[in-house]
TrEMBL record, chain A:
<keyword id="KW-0408">Iron</keyword>
<feature type="region of interest" description="Disordered">
    <location>
        <begin position="127"/>
        <end position="151"/>
    </location>
</feature>
<keyword id="KW-0479">Metal-binding</keyword>
<feature type="domain" description="Molybdopterin oxidoreductase">
    <location>
        <begin position="2"/>
        <end position="380"/>
    </location>
</feature>
<dbReference type="GO" id="GO:0009055">
    <property type="term" value="F:electron transfer activity"/>
</dbReference>
<dbReference type="GO" id="GO:0030151">
    <property type="term" value="F:molybdenum ion binding"/>
</dbReference>
<dbReference type="GO" id="GO:0043546">
    <property type="term" value="F:molybdopterin cofactor binding"/>
</dbReference>
<feature type="compositionally biased region" description="Basic and acidic residues">
    <location>
        <begin position="884"/>
        <end position="900"/>
    </location>
</feature>
<comment type="similarity">
    <text>Belongs to the prokaryotic molybdopterin-containing oxidoreductase family.</text>
</comment>
From TrEMBL, chain B:
<feature type="binding site">
    <location>
        <position position="215"/>
    </location>
    <ligand>
        <name>[4Fe-4S] cluster 2</name>
    </ligand>
</feature>
<feature type="domain" description="4Fe-4S ferredoxin-type">
    <location>
        <begin position="13"/>
        <end position="42"/>
    </location>
</feature>
<dbReference type="InterPro" id="IPR014603">
    <property type="entry name" value="Formate_DH_Fe-S_su"/>
</dbReference>
<feature type="binding site">
    <location>
        <position position="219"/>
    </location>
    <ligand>
        <name>[4Fe-4S] cluster 1</name>
    </ligand>
</feature>
<protein>
    <submittedName>
        <fullName>Formate dehydrogenase, beta subunit</fullName>
        <ecNumber>1.17.1.9</ecNumber>
    </submittedName>
</protein>
<feature type="binding site">
    <location>
        <position position="120"/>
    </location>
    <ligand>
        <name>[4Fe-4S] cluster 3</name>
    </ligand>
</feature>
<feature type="binding site">
    <location>
        <position position="32"/>
    </location>
    <ligand>
        <name>[4Fe-4S] cluster 2</name>
    </ligand>
</feature>
<feature type="binding site">
    <location>
        <position position="22"/>
    </location>
    <ligand>
        <name>[4Fe-4S] cluster 1</name>
    </ligand>
</feature>
<feature type="binding site">
    <location>
        <position position="200"/>
    </location>
    <ligand>
        <name>[4Fe-4S] cluster 2</name>
    </ligand>
</feature>
Amino acid sequence: MANADCIVIQGSNMAECHPVGFQWVSEAKARGARIIHVDPRFTRTSAVADKHISIRVGSDIVLLGALINHVLSNEKWFREYVLAFTNASALVNEDFRDTEDLDGLFSGYDPATGRYDNASWSYRLKSGDDESTANEPQQGPGMGDQFGAAGPVAVDGTRGDGLCRDEIETDETLQHPFTVFQILKRHFARYTPDLVQQMCGISEADFDYLARSITENSGRDRTTCFAYAVGWTQHTMGAQFIRTAAILQLLLGNMGRPGGGIMALRGHASIQGSTDIPTLFNLLPGYLPMPMVTAGTLTDYLDGIASPAQKGYWANAEAYVVNLLKAWWGDAATADNDWAYDYLPRLTGPHGTYQTVAAMLDGTVDGYFVLGQNPAVGSAHGRLQRLGMAKLKWLVVRDLALIESATWWKDGPEIQSGELRTEDIETEVFFMPAATHVEKAGTFTQTQRMVQWRHQALQPPGDAQSELDFFYELGLRIREKLAGSDDPRDRPLLDLTWNYPLDEHGNPDSAAVLQEINGRFRTGDKAGQPLSSYAEMRTDGSTEGGCWIYTGIYAGGVNQAARRPARTGHDPVNPDWAWVWPADRRLLYNRASADAEGRPWSERKRYVWWDSEQGRWTGDDVPDFPATLAPDARPGPEATGPAALSGLDAFIMQADGKGWLYAPRGLVDGPLPAHYEAQESPVRNTVYDQQRSPARVTLARPDNLSAPSDDDPGANVYPYMFTTYRLTEHHTAGGMSRWLPYLSELQPEMFCEISPELAAEVGIEPYGWATLISPRAAIEAKCLVTDRMRPLVVNGRTVHQIGLPYHWGVGGEQAVVSGDSANDLLGVVMDPNVLIQESKVGSCAIVAGRRPRGRARLELVAEYRRRAGVTVDTGMRPIDVERGEHAMRQDRLEAERVNADDPWVVPDDEQGGER
Amino acid sequence: MINLEESFQPGRKGFFTDTSICIGCKACEVACKEWNRNPADSTWQLSDSSYDNTTHLGADTWRHVAFVEQGRERIEQARQSGRQLVNLGMPGVRTEAATNVDVTPPDTPDFRWLMASDVCKHCTHAGCLDVCPTGALFRSEFGTVVVQADVCNGCGTCVAGCPFGVIERRKDGLVEPKTNRDFTAGEQAPTPHVGVAQKCTLCYDRLVDGLEPACAKTCPTTSIKFGEHADLTEQARERVRQLHAQGLTEARLYGANPNSGVGGTGSVFLLLDEPEVYGLPPDPRVPTADLPHMFDRASLAAVGMIAGVVLAFFTGRRRR
């Protein structure tokens, strides 16, 4: 980021939530970069930006879409880059229909299931077959269990090479109406500055400033960088928000170049690491998919990931899988037993956090481990979380203090309201004290994929243990209990390699775990030596490695993540600091930092280039490209794997080697982003007739109700939009901050932030109390009445937004400060790609004064629900407009217009709104 | 009266706090309390002052971040007053630089949120040091002003002697030397130095070990810079020039003037508005500044009195 000429921070409050990472923004600014912050609130990030642009929550696709339209229609796109490195020239299946044609839906939508069949979104192939006909996605009954475009392409057939560049029909003139480029142009044509003003509440002048800033700071000589965080992801359209930015950055030529890119600012230390070596239900280490129950054999599973016949590095997936299985099961993993593939658990559907909570409420989950999180406060719909935990048989909470998730059974909000009685709760709760980050050694992986080693400063106090100690010991104890068992279901546990060297305190050595992750030779001359690259991984069991993308982190027997040379002056790369996966590449897809012929785009932005004398790629970074693959190399169709990459396939993990302006697969809610309103919104979607994302995942239950939207009856009972966020002073749900006096005193009380206009409208005094009511809960908060919150005029109507930090909780033993939890207001509705909850937008009411106590609090919530007519069906229909209904509505609107001209004709639809 | 050598003596250490790049993260406040083991000082309620909940410097809070929300009108005033400082030949912005400055203001934003980390000024002429009757306060080899807690008797004279309201007596805690660091991990450490005067030491105990102060070490955006006072003052002047060149004429220095009422301060600040806006006195003056005058006058009076007595003696004799 320090190398950028313009930085747009949107969907993130970087200075507050990533103050240490913000030093690079500060450095860029000191070197003359322009910083723009697009956010519903004026925050500490806005305070040090060159400009703050206020936006209505959840309308980001409209703004970014309009920027795409601006770039396309004003010829501001980077032609040479787009032609060389993106799929702009690819032709799309002629069955494809866009939202333009189908009134807000893409082709392939099934209103009965609320899901898309993406067959018609695929590329057009020279053979005449559409690639989709050959590739049926490996799919279970649920959603969110697929894998993104950059991950392995989940296919079940024998050929995973449908995206091979040589088989795709293209039109390099970009004129064919079914080229990606032309589809893009048509799709975004309706995203205009005028629409931005209507839907986002952003003036044309501000839009113009933003558009000029990014286009003037893109091209051969300059680069613009975007940064986002959960302000983009935590929406029903989360993945598509990021897709929109990706399209924009590809068109501007800002990917794979210094000072470009899209920075995904992670929620806390090593969230990146916890997806690389995942805590996610649908992934194995290194972004290998967790097998579905349908993938009976290793061959089935491998066919579902990639074909050896396909292009790029996923073609070697078999090596990555075999090495993982060998690392886990050692000698017990043999060629004869499919490398112990059957030891892996199988997915039967989506098992995300919220589906699991629903299963708890239904009584089908016995036990729950809560580690490093505080779901009673930090997860959406806190009440659902707490009631779910009350249905468990056992619960283990490992944390630094007795957080609310460990004490809800005696002092939670449901105990206070009388909904739950301690003596009725059968859950057995175990609390295990945890070591802090300074009390254990290990790694943090940050957003740049940089893995940094962390040394232990002191031993944990008392019984506190690190996660490594805890799970190691738990494994030992379970294996002890199972010793001698001949039940086949116990084999995976008994055969695990569980032999880590112990330090002088009897705890396993975390460096040994990193060595296992790196991998080693098992046989031959080098037996026992660490692997230096994933290219050394073999499929014959002679090597092992726990996470292929991390191979090399212990190259030469040295902990590369612990490298910390002194920093002198400004080095744009700092190549010796720590270690970055994969293969210590600091900047991903950096082949794109050179033009088609391999020359730097400009002297100012030179990074990696082709040295024709030496016949290899060279530069400031490790080239993210086969080192000797010439820019003009064009392998024939018979080549496979990395050898099939052409000299222009900069995006080496994509099956066609190209940056995707249009996603023929990988996303389940559309190949292009389209704006829909949030699940709850007082605003009508005027972009399409479809109000909400048609593919969003809902959880229609009587305990998870939604407020009416738009001008549906009852929507005015919850007239204000709210958004949740964090403050610098606290850590997420407070487990690491509300127990510390030094941090608690800096932000001692739960508050909401509202504009002076809203305060006047509802009669709230500055720093006075207010009660906020949603269909799920009522909470109280002090009010910061501030000009940092501005009402926006959207669709001609004033929209007020309320800001709510979510750090506080009720209960929690010995917490220095406590307060109502903002997340209790939220309902659960999810993005279909990754099953993230929509916690950045909701509808609520706000009234002056403190909330009622005890049972009266529940009655208040129920009364508002009654007034709004909220039922379990409210907002749960997958699509808002049936086919054909749109046309009828147009007729009706036309009739109303005619009637309005004639004062004697009474409109026959007095009710209006009902759709 | 003031000489520059005194303000810029070699080896004098100080802070330059550039508030224009402060992100208000308060890491300086926390790092300071952590290192010095200062107690929390809170009613555990919002202080009704934007995001500022520590509100002022005191015995327990040696770094304090102020938050000021301002509208367009006030921003224009600040820009105007800063420009006047330039025209008046504001110390620190040399006149030849000022003539090169493009003073066309950029678009005035509708709103801004100022953040500034305040700290003990470590004055060239320190009121607290001057009035301390026990010698508990001393001028260190780094040119800083430090309390020796084991000498201080808690008389509180220094509290009135500080023109910035920085030094205070600690109200509660335990009397214990700070060297005693054998507290139990996971438990709140006992508070040292109760009842005696406390303020920022510019991390004297870190400086003697060749480390930089905790606040400067932790500041993520280098808003707090630590170093040689003379270098920092020059850096600060350069930064003001740079901001003025961008049309941000509201930028001005605070504490960099060796001719001020305290002889300049070891902690120099770059502010974006009048000092009062941040809760800083506009024209601080050491209470002992008039002492030489007072001695002159008192001497004159004494001489006059003696002369009068002598005169009276002689005239009286003559009359007799």
